[in-house]
Write a structure and sequence with these properties.
Layout: E1 59-64, E2 67-72, H1 74-79, H2 89-100, H3 109-116, E3 127-130, E4 134-138, H4 139-158, E5 172-175, H5 190-201, H6 203-215, E6 219-222, H7 229-237, E7 241-243, E8 248-251, E9 254-256, E10 271-273, H8 276-283, E11 288-291, E12 295-301, H9 310-323, E13 330-334, H10 336-340, H11 343-351, H12 353-356, E14 360-362, H13 367-375, H14 380-392, E15 408-413, E16 420-422, E17 430-432, H15 436-445, H16 459-462, E18 464-467, E19 470-473, E20 477-482, H17 485-488, H18 491-506, E21 516-519, H19 524-532, H20 536-541, H21 563-572, E22 577-580, E23 596-599, H22 602-611, E24 624-625, E25 631-632, H23 634-637, H24 641-648, H25 654-660, H26 664-667, H27 669-673, E26 710-718, H28 725-728, H29 739-746, H30 764-770, E27 778-779, E28 785-786, E29 789-792, E30 797-800, H31 801-810, E31 815-818, H32 830-838, E32 841-846, H33 851-859, E33 863-867, H34 873-876, E34 883-887, E35 898-904, E36 910-917, H35 922-929, H36 933-944
Parallel strand pairs: 2-8, 4-5, 4-9, 5-6, 9-10, 12-13, 12-15, 13-14, 20-21, 20-22, 22-23, 26-31, 31-32, 32-33
Antiparallel strand pairs: 1-2, 3-11, 7-8, 16-17, 18-19, 24-25, 26-34, 27-28, 29-30, 33-36, 34-35, 35-36
Helix pairs in contact: 2-3, 4-8, 9-11, 13-14, 18-22, 18-24, 29-30, 30-32, 32-33, 35-36
């Protein structure tokens, strides 16, 4: 334990005498240098009248490009008596934010001391107030976030205040990438047709985004057709080091409204996914609060063998780290194996941190990061500043074994990785490629509750259908998609897919006609290098024409199958398959009628499209036959590492990045044609089915509520393990017969214009009706029957969950949801919590929670409770006929306090069980008392103005 340092000279900041005008774009509350390209924002000159905080005398200077620059020095903090150099790199970067933002209010000196004294194996009870440098959004989560900001402004105006007090205090970038759908595939004009449909379907949403661009000073939009948010972040938005209006340099850090924001960890930037609710609070000046984490170090050694891809490595690490239970922890990679990996491979691994459950999968900063920045178009002078800054902070270079004290250390030899896939229902269920056939056949007859399909083995061969001259059967591949940020940002695997396609065409192989194949690159840079290497035509010939630039199949935007194929699948209850180079394969996510979904590298996606089935051993069985009838095996067309490396020189050309990320408006005429309204307050249209003013600030009062016990709650749903946000949150297609479908038809919307739930996230009327409406969710109140239904008590009537919730709301009955392990795993979907709240759910009790969803529930004023070890809905014999009370809940509640859940059964017998309150931090108690994070922040802003 280091000696206690002397008190710093000051941790206060004296404000300028005159508040900057919000409407003056050159005087934004926080201005960040957009260092590299395109043209930078106008930077204000340092305001010398402001006295900067100087905790522990850490405000010092470093030299770069022949000039002196200010920064908050971590080595200076070590000189003050803290063992900073032994801290994990990720912890040190968060610590810098505390130093720089120490104002005695949001960030105190005590918070600095607590984190600077981080101990590898201590109990985690302290919360960190992390002020991030910027925020990134994708449009599915970004649109409802902007709706909330607009609603806040409306609420402020009703209170007689200036709407401009609601303004993002950190730069916000929204990338429109989730709205493209694969309606057209397998043709040269698929891209243009899908883009036309995207703009037609989403015109109203895009108008709203354009309003937001002019209404908020720090809100910017990357329009459709550019790329996936995480790849755009990596290739364009990320700066590495930033500078504020006072000339102080600091690390680029962020949170994003997508769980795979962690991809940016591959370039040494601290950032992770949060719900839109939490991101909104961060935009409005609130720190991102989280419990001081454990940091698991993964010591990488060795090198990948011939025939093994970065995807195989990511899937193997996902399985390993999930087994080691890194949920909610930082994972930091180090050692010679990490040093040898290029940034694109690091980013592939970091991207899948949500799949292995970690908050981050972080790689420290080194020369490879500089190489990547330079290769993607950043300027040499800025890279020199970047290197000088991190060297001055003693953060340069990937640590060796023994340099850092980690909470736990894992050893991993890269040479042990073998070709792998993951599935058929979860990304952590890795399968060695050679075991794929056996695993699918085993899963076919395995019980559903054991991650199988519960079918009879005699159906495996006998049940099939005949469509357009081809047999469809169990295991047929119907969707093959090279998609998702996980892999399309990595030139090595994309070029491998192109090389494999080239060899396949040259051998005379063709894709099975049942397969809907598609290519959705993460950015236009991918198209550029596939064309320059001459590989694009071969992918085209196999049906992998580009269908769009965005997140498609991996989020359920796979589009329709041929109606004849879909009819055959449904009629015969076939366990058909999709193969995709994504990161998510939960039930009903890719396509609601495709039950078996496998994650794999892009070249393997092409291979399985050629094979046309997943019950195949690619090591011993041929993909097909060549022009002479000779069998062609995977080994015959698999590209070598040398062949891939020979093509890599064409992949990362700085001038290409500068050109493609220069003037979005000029490159996107459709975006320019979208009109928008102006003004600081949005005029919500009563008849809109896309954008509606949410009810979160209805009857808003400046006085917060009180925390009281909850009595007489009824069960809305009882669920088993691994209920994901895909099950909870409205996603994918809207069924005609669903509450949301009925609502749209009553509003005069034809079925062909329903669009997806994701595109209608700005309308709470649609989204609330779609919460818990997933066709694969299993409510144990109905004996595990699939679909979004429940039993309405006390009458015992079977109803859609929304309809039952509406009846309970009429009666003033609070609702409870009961679940098993890992409740809320999945994308950081704010509507999984918002919809839960709007249905009238006051309590969610589970065996364990996913980190972001638990936080989002509290952020929406929903109480998360956790069963004691060994206690489940099954051990308690719960069936939904009970009523529930939460005893011990009051204004004196403490984080993670034990409470009593009183269960009164229909025979009037009573069980009192102990549950842990999963309001984890003091600030979350405030959020809960205020009815959620948004009312809390709004009251704070109004009080400050």
């Amino acid at each position: 334990m280091p000696s206690r340092p002397s008190r710093p000279s000051t941790c206060r900041i004296s404000k300028p005498s005159k508040r900057p005008s919000p409407s003056n774009s050159s005087s934004r509350p926080v201005a960040v240098a957009r260092f590299y390209f395109p043209p930078t924002d106008n930077l204000t000159r340092p305001d010398l009248s402001v006295s900067l905080p100087n905790p522990f005398n850490t405000l010092q200077s470093f030299t770069a490009n022949g000039a002196s620059h200010q920064f908050y020095s971590l080595p200076a903090l070590e000189q003050a008596g803290f063992a900073i150099s032994k801290l994990p790199v990720s912890i040190r970067i968060v610590l810098e934010s505390l130093l720089r933002n120490c104002d005695g209010k949001r960030v105190s000196e005590l918070a600095i001391r607590d984190l600077a004294r981080w101990q590898a194996k201590s109990a985690r009870t302290e919360e960190i107030p992390f002020v991030v440098a910027r925020i990134v959004l994708q449009d599915f989560t970004g649109v409802p976030l902007l709706v909330d900001l607009a609603a806040m402004r409306s609420a402020v105006v009703k209170l007689g205040k200036n709407p401009k007090i609601i303004e993002p205090l950190v730069p916000v970038d929204l990338v429109v990438d989730h709205s493209v759908q694969v309606d057209f595939a397998g043709s040269a004009d698929a891209l243009a047709k899908n883009l036309d449909l995207e703009f037609s379907r989403n015109r109203e949403r895009y108008q709203f985004l354009k309003w937001g661009m002019q209404a908020f000073d720090t809100f910017k939009v990357v329009p459709p057709g550019i790329g996936i948010v995480h790849q755009v972040n990596l290739e364009y938005l990320a700066k590495g080091v930033l500078k504020d209006t006072h000339g102080v340099y600091y690390p680029d850090t962020l949170v994003g409204t997508d769980s795979h924001t962690t991809m940016i960890n591959g370039i040494g930037i601290v950032g992770w996914g949060v719900g839109g609710i939490e991101a909104e609070a961060g935009m409005l000046g609130q720190p991102v609060y989280f419990l001081t984490p454990d940091v698991v170090g993964v010591h990488l050694t060795g090198a990948l063998k011939e025939g093994v891809t970065a995807t195989d490595l990511a899937l193997t690490l996902t399985q390993l780290l999930r087994k080691h239970k890194v949920v909610g922890k930082f994972v930091e990679f180090f050692g010679p194996g990490a040093t040898a990996l290029p940034v694109v491979d690091r980013a592939t691994i970091a991207n899948m941190a949500p799949e292995y459950g970690a908050t981050m999968g972080f790689f420290p900063i080194d020369a490879e990061c500089s190489n990547y920045l330079r290769a993607t178009g950043r300027l040499d002078a800025d890279i020199e500043t970047y290197e000088a800054y991190y060297k001055a902070q003693n953060l340069w270079g990937i640590p060796a074994k023994g340099d850092i004290e980690y909470s736990a250390e894992l050893e991993f030899d890269l040479s042990n990785v073998v070709p792998s896939v993951a599935g058929p229902k979860r990304p952590q269920d890795r399968i060695e490629l050679t075991a794929m056939k056996d695993e699918f056949i085993t899963a076919f007859s395995r019980p559903v509750n054991e991650n199988g399909f519960g079918k009879k083995m005699d159906e495996f061969v006998t049940v099939k259908a005949h469509v357009a001259g081809t047999d469809i059967r169990h295991g047929s591949v119907l969707i093959a998609a090279i998609t998702s940020c996980t892999n399309t940002s990595n030139p090595s695997v994309m070029l491998a897919a192109g090389l494999l396609a080239k060899k396949a065409v040259e051998h005379g192989l063709t894709v099975n006609p049942l397969v809907k194949s598609s290519l959705a690159p993460g950015s236009r840079v991918v198209t550029d290098y596939l064309e320059k290497t001459g590989l694009a035509p071969y992918l085209d010939q196999l049906g992998f024409q580009t269908v769009g630039y965005g997140c498609t199949t991996c989020i359920g935007n796979s589009g329709p199958l041929d109606p004849r194929i879909e009819e055959a699948v449904v009629k015969n209850d076939l366990v058909a398959a999709s193969v995709l180079s994504g990161n998510r394969n939960f039930e009903a996510r890719v396509h609601q009628n495709i039950k078996s979904n496998f994650l794999m590298s892009p070249p393997l996606v092409v291979a399985f499209a050629l094979a046309g089935r997943v019950d195949i051993d690619l090591a011993t069985e041929p993909l097909g036959t060549d022009k002479k009838g000779k069998p062609v095996y995977l080994k015959d067309i698999w590209p070598t590492l040398k062949e891939v490396r020979n093509q890599m020189q064409a992949a990362l050309k700085p001038e290409v990045f500068r050109k493609l990320y220069s003037d979005f408006a000029e490159q996107n005429p459709k975006w320019n044609e979208i009109p928008s309204t102006t003004g600081n307050v949005y005029s919500f249209e009563a008849n809109s089915t896309y954008i509606q003013e949410p009810p979160f600030f209805t009857n808003f009062s400046l006085t917060p509520g009180t925390i009281n016990e909850i009595h007489g709650a009824r069960a809305l749903g009882i669920f088993g393990d691994s209920v994901t946000t895909d099950h909870i949150s409205p996603a994918g297609a809207i069924k005609k017969s669903s509450p949301a479908g009925r609502f749209l038809q009553e509003a005069g919307v034809s079925f062909e214009d329903f669009n997806s739930y994701g595109s209608r996230r700005g309308n709470d009327r649609i989204m609330t009706r779609g919460t818990f409406a997933n066709v694969r969710i299993k409510n144990l109140m109905l004996g595990g029957e699939e679909g979004g239904n429940t039993i309405y008590q006390p009458t015992g009537e079977k109803l859609a969950i929304f309809d039952a919730a509406a009846k309970h709301k009429e009666n003033g009955t609070p609702l409870i949801v009961i679940a098993g392990q890992e409740y809320g795993t999945g994308s950081s979907r704010d509507w999984a919590a918002k919809g839960t709240n709007l249905l009238g759910v006051k309590i969610v009790v589970a065996q364990s929670f996913e980190r972001i969803h638990r936080s989002n529930l509290v952020g929406m004023g929903v109480l998360p409770l956790q069963f004691s070890e060994g206690t489940t809905a099954q051990t308690l014999g719960l069936d939904g006929t009970e009523t529930y009370d939460v005893i011990g809940l009051g204004m004196t509640i403490k984080p993670q306090q034990d409470l009593t859940l009183r269960i009164t059964r229909s025979d009037t017998s009573v069980n009192n069980i102990t549950v842990r309150c999963r309001i984890d931090t003091p600030i979350e108690i405030d959020y809960y008392q205020h009815g959620g994070i948004l009312p809390y922040v709004l009251r704070q802003i109004i009080a400050a103005n």
